[in-house]
Each structure stands twice: as structure tokens, then as C-alpha cells.
Design brief:
Elements (H helix, E strand, L loop, with lengths): L3 E2 L11 E4 L4 H12 L4 E4 L2 H7 L9 E5 L5 H14 L6 E6 L4 H9 L4 E4 L4 H12 L13 E2 L3 E6 L2 E10 L3 E5 L9 E8 L2 E13 L12 E6 L4 H15 L5
Parallel strand pairs: 2-3, 2-4, 4-5, 5-6
Antiparallel strand pairs: 1-3, 7-9, 8-9, 8-11, 9-10, 10-13, 11-12, 12-13
Helix pairs in contact: 2-3
Amino acid sequence: MSPWIETSQTPLSRGPILLLGPDSKIQRILVQELHSLPATTMTALDFEDATRRLAEASHPPSVLLLPEKEIIPDEFEEQLSALRIRTRSPSLVPIAFGRSPDAERRQALREAGLRLALFGRFGRHALRFQVNRALSRWATRKPRGEIRAPKEWRTRSFSSGRIKAVRCYSLSSGGAYFVTPRPWVVGSDVSLELPIGRKRLLVQGRILYTNAAGAGDSRTLPRGMAITFRPLGDRVQKAIRADVHRTQASLEV
């Protein structure tokens, strides 16, 4: 597999996403998924290999993805600092992926400076969600307000007597973002099915904005629509918050 995987579309960031670790099935899948975001990807065996490959790069790396099992906590902070200096990327944010570690291992990883993760099984929405977090100015800060989490749900939306199949990209107790090639019109009242637990919760909302992916900052989101929920009952709100918090446990070290 070539170390450089370029995208012909406008990428999420100017610099490549750096993927560390030995060649494996999950590495190859990640390269394919990152390319579809779209993003330019560079693979390297380890920190030393990455520094050598990036020496002549026109842009410094924007995000670092690496297997959790390959991280040596006592060495990681120094390795990351050296990579940031040598690649001229002082704000490079790492994301660890792999099996969910135990509490002791998590603590060691946090002390080494890791904050973002993709633990356990995850899909394209979670990958995009975490890459966007790593690219943001607030990547290492605790989120304020209602916590959001990525979802992969296929569900339905209803408006003006019509039904539209959609896929949930992210969810909070205040609203959600749904992927669809043909969003409802901004300002439309909609009903949504949320497959939480054993039941499908039906909630009411309104379209805040829509996104035709590919223009300016809108490329960080897939084509779709943002929805704000109408006031929710306590039971529904608690169910959504509990679901979001469960998902967040796999996204943070």
C-alpha cells in the first residue's frame, strides 16, 4: 500500500491525516474510509518513519491516528512532541483506536496526553466526527452545553404527509444532524423516529439549516440537515442523554 493516498476532492484539511502502525486489515479499511471523507492520508510504521516521510511534505499533518495497543505511555508524550516539532505541526492532535482499554490503561494514556479515541467498533460517522473534533480549536477542551455523539442509525423523518429515509450523523438531547441527499426545506416542521433502546421514540423538530457538502466549511459535514427538537418530555430527554453518554465513553480516553 502506498504511504500517500491523495484525494481528488477538496479535503477536510490542508495537511494529511497521519496513520501510524503496521499494515493490517483495520489500517487498510481506515485509509479507505478517510479517503471517502474526503481526506489525504499518509501511513507510516512508527514515529521515526513518519518523521522521515513527512520531511518533504508541503503541509504538516493535521491529525494523528494510531493503534492504542502500539502506544507506550512512558514514551508517547516525548514522541509526540518530537513529531510536532519536526513536522512543524504544534497543534497536532492524536486519536487512539482499538479495543477499549481497562481503567488503569486509560489513566496511563490520559497521563501521556491522549484525550480522543475510537474504541471498539465504529463507523464512518464516528470517524468523521472525531477527525472534526481533532481539527477544531477546542479539540482538547471538554465540550460545553449538551453533549453530542455520532450515530450510524438508519431511520425515517416525516413532514407534510411525506416520508424520507435518513441516517443520523450526530445526536444530542437538543437536536440532531441527519444525512440525506435531499433535505427538507429550512424551517420545515418534521417528526423523527429515534431507535433508542427497544423502542423507536417519535420526536418533533424544525429544520435549522441544510448542507450541500463540498462548499467551504460545509465539507466537514456530509450532505444533510440539522434539526432542533421541540421541547422533549423528561423520559425521552433522559433516554437520549443516556444513549449519548454511552457512546461518548468510546470516544474519550
